[in-house]
Each structure stands twice: as structure tokens, then as C-alpha cells.
Amino acid sequence: MRALRILLIFVVILGGLFVIADRVAVNFAEDEAADRLKTTENLSATPDVSIKGFPFLTQVAGGSLDDIEVGIKDYEAAAGNGGRKIRIDDLQADMKGVEFSGDYSSATATSATGTATIAYDELLKTAKSEPTQVAPGVTANVVGLSDGGNGKIKVTVEATVLGTKLPEPVSVLSSVKVDDGTVRVHADGLPSFGGVDIAENRVRAITDFQQKIDGLPGGIKVDTVQAAPDGVEITVKGSDVRLAG
């Protein structure tokens, strides 16, 4: 009986040491992965990396990790041609089935899903913010984007008619969707500029706009978009997502 008690104590101690070693190893791996991801994606700040699942050392021995969560506070994504960038806020991605090379120089996730936000001031850079002629004697430009409720964006436009700026900006509720990585904003109706009759295509040249989003981490793509209080919320997804190497 005494021998059994000693054996049980010994097993508990070994188990405790294994847990400690496992947690030390996973913390070290998270720091290394964060540094490599920062280098790979040329990030200005080190991202948050959290390796899920226990035990970690057993997963490492098998050459695959079940689940890794990555958080990037600010990410500068490519915004189409011309080298322009657009800031993506609070990108949170969940990577599943992460396999890595024997020397840990590269890692690829079988699949990834996540969320992020594009602030309205960032999306506004895409709209026509400089006065543009929409009819003889009439110019207009977008001066603000905000949450319109029920998944809509409120697009606020200023107009000048025959040299006189309208006393109040006009606004229109717009739908937002994504098509092959391009976020598109489309007015549900048309605003009136001082009662002047203007062709629809000329008005939509101001109210409607689009923003291409490329170069997200590891090749993930924008999947869905939805207007929200702080900006356009996006979901992302991808397969064979490269984390490093």
C-alpha cells in the first residue's frame, strides 16, 4: 500500500512537470510564431499568437497543430493598383490544422476563418471626396460615411448648385457587398440636389464606389461584409493559408 502511494505521488509529480514543460514550450512557440509572422507579413507591430489544444508537445511530435488564433491590431492591405493601402482593424483569424516543416521554417493552415473591421474614414478615401460635376452648374462630393442601421451605410454628400452650396448635405442609405475581394457600396435610392434633374448614372458616379482589398495575411480573402457602428465588419476565409516561410 505504501509503495502504491509512493508510485501515485511520483506519477502526479511527473504529470505536473510535464504540464509545466508543455506550457513553457507553448509560450516559447507562440513568441517565435509571432516574430516570424511579423517578418513574413512585414508588420509594424508583433501580432498576438495563441496556440490552442493540449498537450502542445504531443502535437509538435505529430508535426501538426490543431488550432492557432492570430490577432493583428492594424494591417495595411493592398487597395488595388497603384500601390495604395487600406487599414484593416482588429483582424482576428482562427487557423485550423497547421502543419509545419521539420525545421519549423514554414507553416501552413488547412483552413482559416476570421473577422476584421474597415473604419468608415478608411473607406471614405475610396469615395469621390473632391467636388465633381454631375450636371451643368452642379458639383457634388461625398463628405462622410456612417452607420445607417439595418446593415446599411449612410453616404453623406455635399452639393453646389450654380455656385451656391446647398445649406444642408444630403444623404442616402446604401447597401454594401463583396464580390471577388472587392467591397462595393451601392445607393438604394438617389439623393436630390436642389431639385435639379440629374441623370442616374451621373449621380451614381458620386454615391456608388468600390474598394478592392488584396494581400491579406497568408492569402486569406474577404468573404462577407456588413455595415456596423464603427465601420464595415468583414469576415475572411481561406485554405492552405501560409503562416510562415
What does this protein look like?
This protein is an alpha+beta fold and 245 residues long. Strands 5, 6, 7, 8, 9, 10 and 11 form a seven-stranded antiparallel beta sheet that branches. A six-stranded antiparallel beta sheet has the order 1-2-3-4-13-12. The longest helix has 39 residues.
Secondary structure category: alpha+beta
Count every beta strand, where a strand is a DSSP E run of 2 or more residues: 13
Give the fraction of residues assigned to helices: 10-25%
Main sheet makeup? 7 strands, antiparallel
The total count of helices amounts to 4
Q: Label the overall shape.
A: elongated
Q: What radius of gyration results from the CA coordinates?
A: 26 Å
**Strand content bin:** over 45%
Terminal CA distance:
55 Å
Q: What is the element string, with H for helices and E for strands? A: HEHEEEHEEEEEEHEEE
Mean pLDDT: 83
Low-pLDDT runs of 5+ residues are: none
Oligomeric description of these chains: single chain
Protein name: DUF2993 domain-containing protein
Pfam families: LmeA (PF11209)
Please give a handful of descriptors for the protein shown.
single chain; seven-stranded antiparallel β-sheet; 49% strand; elongated; DUF2993 domain-containing protein; 4 helices; 13 strands
